[in-house]
């Protein structure tokens, strides 16, 4: 075939371009064979130039090798950069992509234009000379170069996988998922919502006082048949009624005093039905007990007009407290500096005696005497008769004006074996020392009225032949008592931090006082003593100041205090346990109140609280849900609740001048008769004693208590058991704990 002849000008330019692009010419060889261009066959053409539509999704080794060879070509499209990041990118961190772009097919493919990329100056990319801030898009860090290369590779792969038809529409960007409400995120979210108050829009507004359901604090108490100790008699009778109880501060032992004068120790962490130690302390009923701070001494108050201090290591008395002329009502050790040495007793004779065991003390231990004949005999330690260092006679004597204006209510009736007081003497039924730092101050209450008196035991000097004692201050009884008659106080106890005093009154109410306001105005007596300093003393027979009345009160339909043997006790907040107030009741149950004032504030803010959780009928002092009263001046906006008529329906009582809270949980089925004394152990368990000869231990367990509430009576599952009754409409038992 004849070759096509080219023009001479074109031929010359073609030869010039071939010479420029090819390697240097070789010298002609006479022996070599002329080399020709390889022929292109259809097989070879299909091997190297296969259409994209016929390429498989899995590239072959040769195609991967070609793609790797194309890497430098891709790098040429990018702008070379220095290992040092330009200063211009320090201010543009927001430009870095943080989320991967959703893959979608391209409709039109365009090859990047190399002319749009500019090479930077060597000054701007030098690692030695720092450039000035420059916002040109050509300056990029190595991170951005790698990112761009990866993006171009993804585009090449997408083009390889795309179909031949290009009419397909691009995919819409993925929508962001809306946040799920907190109450729909499972148990953990519900727990967070409960901790923050369970209020709507909890994440959108600030909560000054987050309040959860108060029943979560009290709903976990239960008792099994193995948690019961039956008080049997030590003197031949079938059973013996327990009168009082107290717990050790350092261990799990609980002391119980009965009507025969015996003290039995029970272990609240082991077999509760068995007696750990038992001994006789008195020949008459034991009315009250109290351990010292180190648990080595046990003080008793008995109906035989005496008290005793017993060494718990030997179970023998070391001191006899015998200056009262009637039955003793209470005994308390002084905390702080006088711990284990100073204690106070009160009795039906209306007096309070302060004792110091360091006075008139005999030998500390038994003395061994050796005679000349070599005989040995021991002289036992004599019992210390006790030394009264101060006395308060007629501590709560009623003035003649009070006797004429107010009729006397039913007083403290003596039980079998107790020596009653003389006519006209007012029984001092409750004692309580203030916390360390103010341990020289003593609080007393009586059977005649609901007034609480504050005494300085260092500055009282009275006798039966002198005028009556003068307290530091006194609180006025609640105004509602003025319309009917006064009611006495049977028990007092302090809160964990010492800021609240809880007094159990015979009007079926527990009143809460502020200990910082027991003296109104400037009160140097309430100033805590500094380390190594003596608190200021007040003058003898000075003027008594007036203190602030109760702040609020606790009531419940199943809480009755028909006798002075019904007591109250506070569990201090410790080890994750909240502070709780437990009171006995003549209705045969124990009522537990949460003392956290966030629950009380929540009750004040609701003018019509939900009373559906209340169990039983309303008592004489119960408050109807629809009751209204005038607002309390101490708490603006808080509803002052109104009482219903009394049990006899003879008259109606005056409206309360303070808020009254009814948020309490009864512990039902634990006792059949009146629950008198109770105490909290060092592990947070509750021990109650009743007139049904039973001492019962209560433990905390949400699952066990809910099982007893909801399980029913089938197969005797509830026999001998007790539980916290929070009502049938409470939703807390349905939670997955």
Give an overview of the whole structure.
Strands 1, 2, 26, 27, 28, 30, 31, 32, 33 and 34 form a 10-stranded antiparallel beta sheet that branches. This protein has a 5-stranded mixed beta sheet with strand order 17-18-19-20-24, with no helix packed on it. The protein has a 5-stranded mixed beta sheet with strand order 21-22-23-25-29, covered by helices on one side. Helix content is 13%, strand content 22%. A hairpin with a 3-residue loop joins strand 4 and strand 5 (262-267). The protein has 737 residues and is α+β, with helices and mostly antiparallel strands. It is built from 10 helices and 34 strands.
Quick description:
The chain is an alpha+beta fold and 737 residues long. Helices cover 13% and strands 22% of the residues. Residues 1-143, 155-179, 617-643 are annotated as: Disordered.
């Amino acid at each position: 075939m004849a070759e096509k002849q080219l023009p001479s000008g074109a031929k010359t330019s073609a030869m010039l371009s071939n010479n420029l692009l090819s390697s240097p010419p070789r010298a002609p060889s006479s022996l070599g064979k002329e080399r020709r261009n390889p022929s292109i066959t259809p097989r070879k053409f299909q091997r190297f130039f296969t259409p994209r539509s016929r390429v498989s999704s899995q590239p072959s080794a040769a195609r991967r090798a070609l793609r790797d060879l194309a890497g430098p070509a891709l790098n040429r499209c990018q702008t070379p950069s220095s290992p040092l990041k330009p200063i211009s990118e320090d201010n543009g961190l927001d430009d870095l992509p943080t989320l991967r772009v959703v893959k979608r097919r391209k409709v039109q493919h365009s090859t990047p234009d190399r002319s749009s990329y500019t090479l930077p100056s060597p000054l701007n990319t030098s690692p030695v000379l720092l450039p000035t801030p420059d916002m040109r898009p050509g300056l990029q860090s190595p991170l951005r170069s790698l990112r761009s290369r990866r993006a171009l590779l993804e585009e090449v792969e997408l083009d390889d996988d795309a179909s031949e038809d290009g009419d397909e529409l691009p995919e819409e960007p993925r929508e962001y998922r809306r946040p799920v409400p907190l109450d729909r995120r499972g148990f953990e979210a519900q727990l967070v919502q409960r901790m923050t108050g369970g209020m709507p829009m909890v994440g959108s507004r600030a909560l000054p006082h987050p309040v959860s359901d108060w029943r979560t604090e009290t709903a976990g108490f239960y008792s099994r048949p193995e948690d019961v100790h039956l008080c049997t008699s030590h003197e031949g009778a079938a059973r013996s009624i327990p009168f009082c109880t107290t717990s050790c501060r350092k261990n799990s032992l609980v002391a119980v005093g009965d009507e025969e004068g015996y003290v039995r120790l029970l272990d609240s962490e082991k077999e509760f039905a068995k007696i750990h130690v038992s001994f006789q302390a008195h020949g008459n009923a034991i009315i009250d007990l109290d351990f010292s701070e180190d648990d080595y001494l046990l003080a008793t108050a008995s109906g035989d007009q005496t008290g005793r201090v017993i060494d718990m290591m030997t179970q023998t008395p070391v001191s006899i407290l015998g200056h009262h002329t009637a039955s003793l009502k209470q005994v308390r050790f002084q905390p702080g500096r006088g711990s284990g040495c100073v204690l106070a007793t009160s009795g039906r004779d209306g007096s309070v005696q302060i004792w110091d065991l360091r006075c008139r003390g005999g030998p500390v231990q038994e003395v061994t005497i050796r005679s000349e004949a070599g005989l040995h005999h021991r002289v036992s330690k004599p019992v210390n008769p006790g030394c009264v260092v101060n006395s308060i006679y007629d501590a709560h004597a009623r003035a003649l004006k009070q006797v004429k204006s107010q009729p006397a209510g039913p007083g403290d009736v003596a039980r079998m074996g107790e020596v009653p007081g003389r006519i006209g003497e007012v029984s001092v039924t409750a004692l309580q020392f203030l916390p360390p730092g103010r341990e020289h101050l003593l609080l007393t209450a009586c059977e005649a009225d609901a007034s609480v008196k504050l005494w300085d035991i260092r500055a009282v000097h009275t006798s039966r032949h002198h005028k009556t004692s003068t307290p530091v201050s006194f609180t006025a009884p609640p105004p509602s008592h003025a319309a009917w008659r006064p009611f006495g106080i049977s028990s007092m106890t302090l809160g964990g931090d010492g800021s609240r005093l809880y007094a159990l009154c015979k009007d079926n109410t527990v009143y809460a006082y502020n200990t910082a306001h027991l003296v109104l105005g400037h009160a140097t007596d309430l100033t805590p003593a500094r380390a190594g300093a003596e608190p200021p003393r007040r003058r003898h027979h000075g003027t008594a100041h007036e203190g602030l009345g109760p702040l609020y009160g606790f009531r419940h339909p199943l809480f009755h205090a028909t006798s002075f043997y019904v007591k109250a006790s506070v569990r201090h907040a410790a080890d994750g346990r909240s502070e709780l107030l437990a009171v006995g009741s003549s209705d045969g149950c124990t009522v537990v109140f949460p003392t956290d004032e966030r629950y009380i504030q929540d009750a004040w803010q609701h003018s019509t609280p939900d009373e559906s959780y209340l169990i039983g009928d309303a008592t004489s002092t119960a408050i109807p849900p629809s009751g209204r009263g005038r607002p309390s001046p101490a708490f603006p906006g808080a509803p002052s609740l109104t009482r219903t008529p009394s049990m006899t329906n003879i008259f109606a009582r005056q409206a309360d001048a303070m808020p009254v809270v009814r948020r309490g949980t009864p512990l039902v089925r634990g006792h059949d008769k009146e629950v008198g004394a109770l105490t909290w152990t060092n592990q947070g368990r509750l021990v109650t004693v009743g007139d049904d000869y039973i001492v019962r231990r209560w433990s905390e367990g949400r699952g066990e208590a809910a099982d007893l509430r909801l399980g029913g009576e089938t197969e005797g599952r509830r026999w001998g058991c007790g539980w916290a009754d929070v009502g049938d409409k409470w939703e807390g038992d349905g939670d997955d704990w």
